[in-house]
Amino acid sequence: MSDAALQSLIDAVHLAAARATPLRIRGGGTKDVLGQSLQGEVLDTTALKGIVAYEPSELVVTVRAGTPLAALEVALAQQGQCLPFEPPRFGAGGTVGGMVAAGLSGPARASVGAVRDYVLGLELVNGRGEALTFGGQVMKNVAGYDVSRLMAGAWGTLGVITAVSLKVLPMALAEATLKFECDQAEALRRINHWGGQPLPLNASCWVEDAGIGTLYLRLRGAVAAVEAACRTLGGERQDNARVAADWDACRDQRLPWFADRQASECLWRLSVPQTAPVLPLPSGVGAPLVEWHGGQRWVQAGPEHAGALREAASRAGGHATLFIAGDDPSALGIDRFEPLKAPLDRIHRRLKAEFDPSGLFNRGRLYAEL
Question: Sign of the C-alpha dihedral, residues 273, 341, 329, 34?
């Protein structure tokens, strides 16, 4: 990144620290609806853009945090490579820094891993205005590697990411999507059964429309493996060109199931073990959209169902997040993220005190008091 852009950002952090003014880190703003609250003066990262280094033969790219995610994906595609975890974009302006800070992954996450699994190293500016570097550009680099991964999903509460080194992978040689008509219980049973077999499973999505449940299963891998799996699994094979748009819509939550959500309803994200059975949802709440081979279940429900949804997820061994609040005023009083247990709360607070002692960055984004 240009020295001027980095220095300008550092100066802004120093000034905010001197004035005790909280800062809201913002790239493209495509995730402004996510998180507990938005507080502080905007600290714009979009001047930090561009690919610093890219070695296709080494499957490593180093990119500045304000670089549009779309621009990075185009550069990778030109070399036949990709970000296999399919980060949601939620709009054209999403940035690489926001991708890492949010830690969100798309349909393939259950098969290929999450964002943090591909972060090799990063650079950031902490709450003292210090430019720090963690990790490196190879997977076997150990020093600071865990710190780099710690920033994935921290929502900018620990510092301003300025550059990231990512592992990338070649695009799959073959792909196929199979369609099965079945209810949710049968879909979960099939996915769990297939997961124990040597099949090139990549992504799955079960959704109910007008009372009819449909499971979509995407296969990716070597040509022979994909073709053999199609013969073994059966189902109705979909046209790749057409269904690609559907998977893209699933990734960015543009499927009709998401678009048809009532304004008063909240969008809940239930993270549970893949082997969890059909969850007992409150009366009147519609069937979920199920991804990640059963591990991620999206539910549309009013704020009055918060307790029941969190109880259902907890009983299954997971947790529930209020992903997007509806326009019902009562949703404002609900914690977006489940309260941390005491040991984890202490760790969060100690990390925050170490990286951002004055509490400048993204105050209240994760939890109201952090």
Answer: negative
CATH of residue 100: 3.30.465.10
Handedness of CA 307, 309, 310, 314 (dihedral sign): positive
Looking at the structure, tell me whether residues 193 and 329 fall in a common domain: yes
3-state secondary structure of 102: helix
Q: Count of domains in the chain? A: 2
According to the model, what pLDDT value does residue 76 have? 98
Q: Do the domain assignments include residue 349?
A: no
pLDDT of 295 reads 98
For the CA atoms of 154, 159, 165, 168, the dihedral, rounded to the nearest 10 degrees, stands at 20
- Is beta strand 23-26 parallel, antiparallel or unpaired with respect to 41-44? parallel
The residue to which tokens 């196929």 are assigned: 176
Nearest alpha-carbon partner for 107 in 9, 257, 253: 253
- The parent domain of residue 295 ranges over 174-333
- Please count the helices (runs of H) and the strands (runs of E) in the chain: 11, 17
Sequence-distant (≥ 6) Cβ neighbours of residue 176 within 8 angstroms: 218, 219, 226, 227, 229, 230, 237, 238, 240
| 133 and 178 together in one domain | no
Of the ranges 57-66, 78-87, 332-341, which one carries the lowest mean pLDDT score?
332-341
Give strand pairing partners of 181.
214
Which pLDDT tens digit goes with each residue over 90-135? 988 999 999 999 999 999 999 999 999 999 999 999 999 999 999 8
In a domain, 343, yes or no: no
Let me know whether 165 and 204 are in one domain: no
